[in-house]
Amino acid sequence: MKKITLMVMILLTASLAGAQKAWQKITDKAIRELTLDFKIPPPEYGMILWWGWDGHMSDTVIKRDLDRIREMGFRGVMLEAGYGMTAEYLSPEWFEMVRIAVDEAKKRGMIVWIEDEGKYPSGFAGGKFSRERPDLKMQGLVITERIDAKSGIRVYAKMPHYALSAVAYNNTDKTSRIIDITSGTLDWTAPEGDWRIFVAGNRFRSSQTRSVNNPTRGKDTTASLMDYLNPLATKQFLSWTHEKYKEYIGDEFGKTFMGFMGDEPDFAYTPWTPKILEEFKARKGYDIKPFLASFFLPQLSEEAKRMKADYWDVWSDLFRDNFFTVQADWCRENNIEYIVHLNHEDQLPGLIRSSGDFFKNMRNVGIPGVDAIWAQIWMDHVADYPKLASSAAHLYGKPRAFTESFAAYSYRPTVPEAKWVLDHQLVRGINFVQIMFMSASTSRQAPAPQLPQAKPIQKPPVPTVRRTSFFQSDTFPPVAQYINRATFLLSQGRPSAKVCVYFPTLSFWYGDNEANKNLLGLSQQLTENQIDFDFADEQAFESVLSLRNGAFVNLSGQEYKAIIIPSISVISETATGKLKEFAKEGGKVIYCGRRPLMMTGKTFRDATEPAEIPGAITEPSGKLTQDMIDLLPEPDVKLNPSSPQVKYLCRKFPDGELYFFFNEGTAPFSSSAVLEGKGKAQLWDAGSGDIKRIKSRSEGPDKTIIQLDLKGWETKFVFIRR
User: Fewer CB near the last or first residue (10 Å), C or N of the chain?
Assistant: First the structure.
């Protein structure tokens, strides 16, 4: 049965890929084919600029801006509605201006993406849900009432129609008692103790939005987000936005116009949708309603922790199926792509709390992404989170992973610093770069002087692009050309990491934030020891990873020969079963730190003791020791001497390997590098577009040795060609 399921999945993936263009699918081009496009890559592989339409827009302004943007080295734009426009967002005049922009971009050989919202986060349609479909607004499960009661006090109250659940919490001994309110009344006498009653109910509650149609230009809830868990709301959103763009842009869908970007969809409250109780019972087999209020207690009981985790599992399924997948399917059917990033990717417990499950959400998205807008990535701290997006892309057979970078950096980067931030992400698997420029004194909480500014040219004509320290005519275009070539190369071939790190979403749902600390420490140690890896979540074990010759194979054709499990509380029965098979066939399973405490089946509530995985090894310290490194598959790269400052990425081709090296430190680095793959070594200079042979020698049947010299912050692309 499993083989049949896998074959159906492979055939489905192949049929979808058949309708896609080269940049939208994993390709097996020979290295020699890349030489044709390396100097000037196709625009769909290049860096794009966030193009904010603040102020008066006309065809004259559009033409001027596109000319200026192209001069700076950008081959594409991400169009965003701004403040003060003469055409109201989502009005016929707005769509007509977008059509003109697409037509003018086409004349210049440029491409256009559109942010799917008038500011952010995605999903309020410029305020239309609040004005026209309030029934489809976002809802939250919230505490609607708190009642204090001392010993012997009777509490009696009529419950409003939206009240769902009640629980009494004893502040003295931290115990709790569920109160039955199904009759519509709360009637309860407090036993001994100091009690507080929590009543939970569903209310219309939205995360804050920054709407271009908000006259205050503030960030508030006047333009409510839609109910992300309701497919009817997503279809309504598409009818107001995507369908209208299609009507005006027409034949340029999938040609000049590439697709839509979603920006930070998430929840500020525990999510609710009208059918969630019905969905929960169908998926988990029990009624969660009486226990909902217990999610909000100061200290959760073991039972409440497990039931809350079950609730997170269900609503994250609905988020994936009814929001992300509906949009991804629409885009795929209309020959364009859907890209999206979430919120708090650099703070994993916050990400899981507000978005449910990163990997579920990205499962069907065309291009998974992250953002780096608040200096989450900088030289003074470790930030490996871009691997979330690249891992999702690798697992699900997607060739691209993107970053939205800069925007609200509190410090204004210089050109070298900006390049460092981008290289930091490229070497962690990002290969699609979108840049948003803003001045140092502004943030996304204020009207942004995005570049270029959309204001009429005054005579004598002068550039109206606001300059930042890393957006200058004499220094920035070479960086743009470098990024265009770098992302082109890194979008080719197949990923090659042989190590997979289990991503502990289930433990996060259970409230185990210690798993986060161990995961981040392990990730840092792996990268600093030149051991490339991907994250893989529960969903991957359930539906993506197939077992072949002692390796897990993902939809990119990549083989994982070792699975590292960080300190976690929970693992699923499905993942445990797959890991048993993997270990039996010779794969390495390594527990790094504490072994899981429980194993879930259909529910967390009925979790059992975890099963043993014969042959699994435990490193109790939770650190990457030398003994543990020796257990891992032979790496693509061995540096002698090595340095934690040097990071690398490898991609496989039918006729060779591509190695991307980045020295993240300021000190020069020099080393002998033993690379997997036998052949002639070439240096591909992404700055100049030149290709030249470099000295190399063979070692054994399948290794090549080169001398690797890197200046501070320098990168190099090295091909080993058979």
Answer: N
DSSP string, 186-209: EEEE--SSEEEEEEEEEEE----E
Residue 573: inside a domain:
yes
Q: What angle do CA 258, 263, 265 make, to 5 degrees?
A: 130
CA 517 to chain centre: 19
For the packed helices 302-319 and 276-284, what is the interaxial angle rounded to 10 degrees? 110
587, 696: one domain? no
First to last CA, the chain: 40
Tell me the DSSP string of 408-431: S-SS---HHHHHHHHHHHHTTT--
Tell me how far apart the alpha carbons of residues 114 and 262 are, in angstroms, rounded to a whole number: 9
Q: What is the CATH number of the domain that holds 35?
A: 3.20.20.70
CATH number of the domain where residue 503 is located: 3.40.50.880
3-state secondary structure of 526: helix
In a domain, 277, yes or no: no
**What is the rounded distance in angstroms from the CA atom of residue 304 to the CA atom of residue 509?**
12
Strands 715-721 and 680-684, how do they pair? antiparallel
pLDDT of residue 408: 78
Nearest to 327 by CA among 319, 315, 335, 338: 338
Domain stop point among 490, 508, 533: 490
Residues 404 and 483 occupy one common structural domain: yes
Query: Does residue 407 contact residue 373 with C-beta atoms inside 8 Å?
Result: yes
Asked whether 600 and 611 are in contact (CB, 8 A), the reply is no
Give the tokens for residue 276.
Answer: 């969630």
Q: Do residues 675 and 639 lie in contact, with contact meaning Cβ atoms separated by under 8 Å? A: no
Q: What amino acid is encoded at 144 in this protein?
A: T
What CATH number has the domain bearing residue 702? 2.60.40.1180
- Tokens found for residue 721: 């060609």
In this structure, are 157 and 240 located in the same domain?
A: no
Q: What is the pLDDT of residue 511?
A: 94
CB atoms within 10 A of CB 479: 21
Residue whose pair of structure tokens reads 């109250």 in the numeric block: 157
Query: What is the rounded CA–CA span in Å between residue 548 and residue 57?
Result: 56
**pLDDT, tens digit (0-9, with 9 covering 90-100), for 471-520:** 555 788 999 999 999 999 999 999 999 999 999 999 999 999 899 999 99
Q: Of 158, 184, 204, which residue is a domain's last? A: 204
21 located within any domain: yes
Q: Is 59 strand, coil or helix?
A: helix
Residues 563 and 579 in one domain: yes
Tell me the pLDDT band of 80, cut-offs 50, 70 and 90.
very high
Nearest to 90 by CA among 126, 116, 129: 126
Whether 464 is covered by a domain: the verdict is: yes
Average pLDDT over residues 54-82: 93
| Residues 334 and 437 reside in one and the same domain | yes
Q: What does the longest C-alpha to C-alpha distance in the chain come to?
A: 87
**Considering its fold, how many domains does the chain have in total?**
4
Residue pLDDT, tens place only, 378-387: 999 999 999 9
**Digit-coded pLDDT (tens) for 196-216:** 999 999 999 999 999 999 999
- Of the CA atoms within 13 Å of residue 438, those in its CB half-sphere come to 24
- Please compute the mean of the pLDDT values over residues 586-598 and round it to a whole number: 96
Cβ neighbors of 451 (< 8 A, separation 6 or more) are 49, 52, 437, 438, 465, 466, 468, 471
Phi, psi of 205 (to 5 degrees): -140, 130
Range of the domain at 439: 13-127+234-266+314-490
Q: Is 639 helix (H, G, I), strand (E, B) or coil?
A: strand
Identify whether the C-beta of residue 708 lies closer than 8 Å to the C-beta of residue 648: no
Backbone angles phi, psi at 523, to 5 degrees: -60, -45
CB 604 within 8 A of CB 568: no
* DSSP 8-state class, residue 323: I
Confidence of residue 22 (pLDDT cuts 50, 70, 90): confident
- Rounded to whole angstroms, the Cα distance separating 641 from 634 reads 17
Asked if residues 488 and 37 have their Cβ atoms less than 8 Å apart, the reply is yes
Cα–Cα distance for residue pair 634/40, rounded to 1 Å: 36
